[in-house]
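Students often ask why we bother encoding 3D structure as a string. The short answer is that it lets us treat folding as translation between two languages. Here is a chain of 398 residues written in the first language.
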Amino acid sequence: MSGIKYLFLANSTKPDQEQYESREPYRISSFEKIPVETAAELGCEVFVGVNRKFASELSCDQPQVHLRRAEIYRNPFHMKELRRAYQNIMEILREENIDVIHCNTPIGGALGRICGKRAGVKKIIYTAHGFHFYKGAPLLNWLLYYPLERFLAHNTDVLVTINQEDYNRAQKFHLKKGGQICYMPGVGISLKEYGCDKTNREKMRESLGISPKDFLMISSGDLVKNKNFGMAVRSVARCNDKKIHLLICGKGPELEKLQRLAKVCGVKEQVHFLGFRNDMKDLLHASDAFIMTSFREGLSRSVMEAMASGLPVVATRIRGNVDLIEEKGGYLVAVNDEEGMAGKIKVLKENQDLREGMGSYNSMHVRKFSQERVKRCMKELYQSSLSEISPWEEERLT
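And here it is in the second language, the structure alphabet:
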């Protein structure tokens, strides 16, 4: 597919001024890795829109990638930022004469498709990492996002979904003539990176002040309302067992509220707020179970990391989680069913054989979502959807 110019777009949290103006080399994230690598290996000239002021001057850990300033942020109501992102994207499309856009996430997906249509981009691929309208979603989500997605589907050549609920719902959308809706098993998890290595287990526990005999659970993610960490804190309190501990890894605006909740619930010494961590692998291997309490997920990478680490999972019964967690690998409970979650925690605490059996099952089951499988799917998608622009070369990616 030599000669094709390809642009990857997605929104992210708005960086602070220092991050925005940083001239540190840009690292392709796990979120971007597979589509960007696959496009490059198929012979495309690859551009990535990033939220850095001096994007085009920055070096990248993948030298074949060209960086361009996009400034696409998550807030759908900040009109000034949306207008600036629109202008930046249009500038990239016109200056580089882009042939293919692969846009992701709600804001990145909307702006990418609007700009792509206006600029006459030949192929527009959109990956929905979890529609904001879902079973049980607030009415406002349905009123705002559902009509928008149906409308933008008309500008979409390929709509990619990563869970079964979204895939089924997308069947009702009308894409461009000849468009297709397909399923992709997430963004890919590195099985080697999260293998069941317990060599640092005791050392990590000691550093956290956790006894080898304590039952240690772990949860991770931004401390925001959607992650519903309050449910996890209250579930620990309902267990009424001082030997049960919970690690919460992440940062965000809900931190102080959650710390107060832990104190009020009498589990201040059992719930440990660790902030952002670079050693998640060791923390997972030091733990006995993973907890997920979100109201909404697309296909949770943190759950897949826990599964690859050989942990049983107790999670809310929501879209995405139902694709990942089977009965042999853990438990699904209703959102905010703290009593039900506490009951499952106590069952796991008292049965090591059950925990190990579930963990072993998860480490096998998660192979369906491996980087290798996702990359094969992405390669097939690009070959089939882009071949009419430029025939792909058989010898590539062999």
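Translate back mentally: Confidence is low (pLDDT under 50) at residues 392-398. Keep this in mind for the problem set.
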